[in-house]
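[job 0412] stage=fold_complex status=start
inputs:
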Amino acid sequence: MIKRTKGVTISQVAEAAGVARSSVSRAFTRPDMLSPETVERIMKAAEAMGYVPNHTARALSTGRHGNIGLIVPDIANPFFPPMIQAAQLEADRSDFCIFLGNTEENPKQEDKLVGRFAGQVEGLVLASSRLSDERIRAHAGKLPLVLINRDLDGIPRVLIDSGSGVREAVEHLVKLGHRKIAYVSGPSTSWSNKQRRSAMRAAASGLGVAVETVPAVLPSYNSGRNAVGAILATGATAAVAFDDLTAQGVLAGLAEKSISVPLDFSVIGCDDVLGAVTYPALTSVSNRSMEAGRVAVFLLLDMLQSRAVRDVRYVLETHLVMRETTALQSKN
Amino acid sequence: MIKRTKGVTISQVAEAAGVARSSVSRAFTRPDMLSPETVERIMKAAEAMGYVPNHTARALSTGRHGNIGLIVPDIANPFFPPMIQAAQLEADRSDFCIFLGNTEENPKQEDKLVGRFAGQVEGLVLASSRLSDERIRAHAGKLPLVLINRDLDGIPRVLIDSGSGVREAVEHLVKLGHRKIAYVSGPSTSWSNKQRRSAMRAAASGLGVAVETVPAVLPSYNSGRNAVGAILATGATAAVAFDDLTAQGVLAGLAEKSISVPLDFSVIGCDDVLGAVTYPALTSVSNRSMEAGRVAVFLLLDMLQSRAVRDVRYVLETHLVMRETTALQSKN
DNA sequence: GAGTTCCATGCAACCGGTTGCATGTCAAGT
DNA sequence: ACTTGACATGCAACCGGTTGCATGGAACTC
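[job 0412] stage=fold_complex status=done
writing structure:
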C-alpha cells in the first residue's frame, strides 16, 4: 500500500523561513524584489520541505494556467500525430502544457470539448475544425483561438495550401502523358478537400486535360479500395487521392484487379504520411503538418503575450514528392 | 478586433437571484439540498447571465480537477494514437479531460512532464515509460499512477502480452516449413522488445528450429531496411520484426534485392498498425493498444473513486493476424 | 400550545497562492 | 540633524468557488 504525501504550502515555508507568505511567493515569482539573502533562505527552506507551488492556486489568482488546448478531429489519422508532436514541442519551449482533444469528426463533441477546455486553458488551437463558422466565431469571442486549415477572416489561421502540391501533381502526370485523371475525393465538409478538388480542376483545365471526381465519403483505406471500380469506369489512367490512406486503398483495389502500378496506372496520394514507410513508395503531396502545428502554437502564444488579436493568415505551400507509383502512360 | 467577455461569477448570480453564494454553488453541485423552486430560480438567473462554473476555483477548493495525464514516448509512432484515442474516449465517459505528454523517448523529458502534470491532474497513465523503476515508484508515491507495458509490482499495470502472438507467429512459420527465422529487434530498453525476443526463443526451441536476432536499434523503416543484409546473412527464410514499421523496411529492403515476398521469403510484423492499410497486406501480431488505453484509464478512475491502490496486473493477450506476407517455404 | 424534528438557507472559513499598498529601515543629500 | 527616497518586507484583500456549522421557520408530535 502506497501512501501519498500531501502538498507543502506557502504558509508552512513562510513559517519555517520566518517570513511572510507574500515573501515566499515573491521568492518564486519575482526574486529581484527581495534581498538575495532572504531569497536564499526561503529557497533553502522550500527545498528542505519539498515545496512545489500549487499550479491551481496560482492559476486562480493570476488567471494564467500555462496550458493551451489542441483539438483535432481524429488522432488516429496519421496526418495529425506529427502536428500534435510539433505543437507540443513548441508549447514546451515556453513551458506550456498541451490539452489534447479528439472529436471523432463530430461537431457536437468538438463543441463540448471546447467548452470543457475553456477555463483551464489560455488559448485553443482548432485543427481541421468541423464546427460551423458561427460556432467558431462564438468561441473565439471567449478565448484566444488559432485555426489550422480553416479560413475565417479575423481569426488567426494557418493554412496548408495543398493546392500548390496538387497542381504539381497534375503537371507531373500530364508530363508523363496522362490525359484523363481521376480525383478520389474526401469528406465534403473538409476545407482541404474543396481546396484540392478545385486545384485539380484549375490545373487540369489550364493544361487541357480532363479531371473526373470520384466520391469516397471518408478518408480511409476501404473508401479508396471501393472507389477503384468507379475510377476505372471514368477511363482515367491516373488518380490523385484525397489522402495517403485512400491512395493505399486504391493501390490495393488495383492490385486485386491485376492492374500494375505504375506500369498500367499511376497513383498519387496527399499528405505524405505513408509514402516513406510503405512499399512500393507512394508518390504524394507533402503535408507540412508539423510546421502547421508549430506555427499555430507560436501564433497563439504570441497572441497571449501581446494581448492582441492580429488577423494573421499564414499559408504553407506544399510540393509533390516523387516516388515510385507514377510512370509514363503506356497504352494508348 | 475581437473583445472577450470576462466570466460571470457565483456572486453575481447570487445577487441576481437574491440568494447567498453558497446556494448558487449548491444549485450546481447538490441541487437536492435546495428546494426545487430555489434551484430553478438560480438556474434561470445563471442561464440568463451566461454563468459557467470556474473550473480552476472549483479545483482549488475541492482538490479535484477532473483531468488525467497520459504520457507516451512518441505520438508519431502509430502504435500510440489508437491507444490515446481509446483512453480519451474512456475518460470522456466520466467527464475527465486528458492531458497529453510526449517524451520524445527521453527519460529527462518524461520526468519533467510528470512534474508539470502533477498538480493539475488527479492521476497519470504512463505508457511504455522510459523512466527507471525508482523514478516511477517515486512518482507513484505522489499521485495515482497506472502503467502500460511496464511490469512493476505494487503499481497497477496493463500489459500487452505480445509473447502469445509472437509464439503463434513462430508456430505459423514453422508449419509453413521455415526452419531458420530471424528476429529483427527493437530498442534494447524496451520491455516489449525483451518480451518478444524471449517469446521467439522459447517458441523456437520448443519446436526445434533456430532463431537469429538481428539488431535494429530504433523501431523504424530505415532500421528494417538496413537490417536486410544481416538478415539474409543468417540464412533465415523468414523474419519477425519488432514492429510493423521495421517490417515495412524489411519488405522494402528485400524488394531492392529482388527477393519476392512471400514466395521467397516470409515477413511478419508486430503491433498490426500498418498491416491493414498497406499493400501487400502485412501479416502481423495484433496489438490491442486500444484496449490497453481504455483499461488503463478505467483502472485509474477506479483508483480515484475508491481511493485505494490495488495491485492489479491486467494482461492482454495478442494473436497472429494472417495476411499476405507469409507463405510456404519453397526452395531447399 | 409547547416541544421536537427537519429542512432550506445563510454565514464565514477555507483551498493556496498573488499583489497593491502601507510600513519600517537605512543611507544619502543638504 | 532633518528630510527624502529607495528598498525590503509585511498586511490584507482578492481570485471563485466549496462546505461545516448555525439559524430560523414550518411541520409534526403528544
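[job 0412] summary: Residues 67-160+289-315 of chain A form a domain with the Rossmann fold fold (CATH 3.40.50.2300).
[job 0412] exit 0
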